[in-house]
Specification:
This protein is an alpha+beta fold. The protein has helices spanning 32-45, 84-97, and strands spanning 10-15, 50-55, 67-70, 75-76. A four-stranded mixed beta sheet has the order 2-1-3-4, with helices on one face.
């Protein structure tokens, strides 16, 4: 039987790194976990086939929450719920180009 694992053209890597004192500035402390479900819902609402991946540090802790778009490697920082529609629109553009 063939492996039927789906490969997504577009992925959003959401940093969910949890850091503790002395560096409380991390994406998890800034609400990145809540962004994952909001991204999934927005992608679903836009009929967008994008994989949302919880990932470790993107090395921009002070600027979090951070999200990286694969395959373009674009990174968004200071992401909030208000940022999500424009991020999903960028995913649409990326999927057309790949």
């Amino acid at each position: 039987m063939a492996n039927s694992t789906k490969v997504h053209q577009v992925q959003l890597h959401v940093c969910t790194q949890q850091r503790y004192a002395p560096n409380p500035n991390c994406c998890a402390n800034k609400g990145s976990n809540a962004l994952i479900e909001a991204l999934r819902q927005e992608a679903l609402n836009n009929n967008m086939d994008v994989e949302i991946v919880a990932t470790k540090c993107l090395l921009r802790c002070d600027d979090g929450p951070n999200i990286k778009l694969i395959p373009s490697n674009k990174i968004w920082s200071h992401v909030s719920a208000e940022s999500i529609p424009s991020i999903i629109q960028e995913c649409k553009k990326t999927s057309i180009n790949y």
